[in-house]
What does this fold into?
Amino acid sequence: MSQGIRIAVPNSRPLPAIMKCFELAGFELPALTSTVTRIPDPFGTGFDLELFSTSPTDVCRYVERGVCHAGIAGTEILCETAVEVWRPFTFNIESYPIVFAGRKGQTFENLQSKPNLRLTTPFPKFTRECFLNRGLNVEVIPVSEGTEIAVDLSMADGYVDLLTSAEDLVKKEFRVLEVLGNTRLKLIVNPALASKRRAALGKLIDLFQNNRPPETCKISIPFDLDDPD
It folds into this structure.
């Protein structure tokens, strides 16, 4: 009787690109849901693949706790959850800059001169650490989405978030003040994974490695060139 290697994937923006990676690796999968999709022993190792989708944060928690043997998560989520997992493979998809952005006409200098700089972000841990490392104490206001709206409503002076569309940011009359980092999509694995399952998972990693999709074009960063120096 086959045993399983359970893999959790995020039910968020990267999911279609992740599904494409499985397709290129030779797997025809239905739309993944919270119900487990089973692929019977694809490598002849005695292990079925069991895939399902859940929230990005839960992917990390499930893998760290051993509920899932592996998962796929962005580095921004890994930073926020601070889980202790093995990261054996980096995908060449869904890589985005993490930016500090503000209304058009603002500058990094005039915002950091505020006595109480308020930043809204879905990544409070990353944001807090990033600015503390620069010697700046900021008030970080966690939000799950709508970072620009929080600035428009005067809840914050700027925001930190993934830049997924330069056009949308410009259309909303925001500009990037500084790029703080980049996110990468990682295959994560529970460190206690037994050697036989690890070897079977290695075959999946080889397929991902040898059948990578074309890299997506890098996003042009919309800095505000009209701002004063």
